Amino acid sequence: MFRKIVVGIDGSKASEDALRLACDIAQKYDSELHLVHTPQPQTVAFAMGAVAGYHTATTMPAPSEVQDAADKIINAGKKIATELGQTITQTHTPHGDPAEELVACAENCAADLIVMGRRGLGQVGALIQGSTSLKVNHLAKCACLSVV
User: Fold this and answer.
1) DSSP readout, 52-92?
2) What is the pTM of this model?
3) Which domain covers residue 18, as residue numbers?
4) Is 116 strand, coil or helix?
5) Which helix (H) or strand (E) is 125 found in, with range?
6) Using one digit for the tens of pLDDT, what is the confidence trace for 82-138?
7) CB 98 within 8 A of CB 140
8) 6 with 101: CB under 8 angstroms?
9) Residue 34: strand, helix, or coil
10) Distance of alpha carbon 46 from its chain centroid, rounded?
């Protein structure tokens, strides 16, 4: 039923829960798992602002800091999948709008299902732009599962 599953992760608890559910589905259907994380400098800036040594959350991080944060999120996702007995087929870290990049990845790998958290780290931006999960559900040409 689900040969290829794309999972959007952003380091939030909701996205980790979505990955756990996707691993469960992948085990049942022997599916490939693809992890997608779109690094967002604003989210990294916010996280850095909560760390000693950074003066404000509005200081934008260097590209290398954004990439380091993305690598940590992807590696954490791989670790969760491994702990659940699953292998990540491929990881994707495109830059751009998270919803559009998630849908593009699903189309490029011919995914049957996109799994994501309903609310992740982009809650402030969602007040203005709308949520990523809402946009993915609108744009996707495959089944979508939003995890609360």
Assistant:
1) TT-S-TTSPPPHHHHHHHHHHHHHHHHHHHHHTT--EEEEE
2) 0.85
3) 4-147
4) strand
5) helix 123-129
6) 999 999 999 999 999 999 999 999 999 999 999 999 865 554 444 444 589 999 999
7) no
8) no
9) strand
10) 17
Read off the amino acid at residue 65. Answer: E
Q: Hey, how many other C-beta atoms are within 10 angstroms of the C-beta on 51?
A: 8
Beta bridge partners of 32: 4
Q: What is the CATH number of the domain that holds 56?
A: 3.40.50.620
% of the chain at pLDDT higher than 90: 65
Residues 112 and 142 sit within 8 Å (Cβ to Cβ): yes
What pLDDT band is residue 148 in, cutting at 50, 70 and 90?
A: confident
| Residue found under tokens 């959007």 | 8
Q: What is the largest CA-CA distance in the chain?
A: 50
Token pair recorded at residue 137? 């559900």
Output the pLDDT for position 125.
Answer: 44
Report d(CA 38, CA 44) in Å as an integer. 11
| Matching residue, tokens 């604003």 | 42
How far apart, in Å, do the first and last CA atoms of the chain sit?
23
pLDDT, one tens digit per residue, over 36-45 is 999 887 766 5
Domain total for the chain?
A: 1
Taking each helix axis as running N to C, give the angle between helix 13-29 and helix 63-83, from 0 to 180 degrees, rounded to the nearest 10.
40
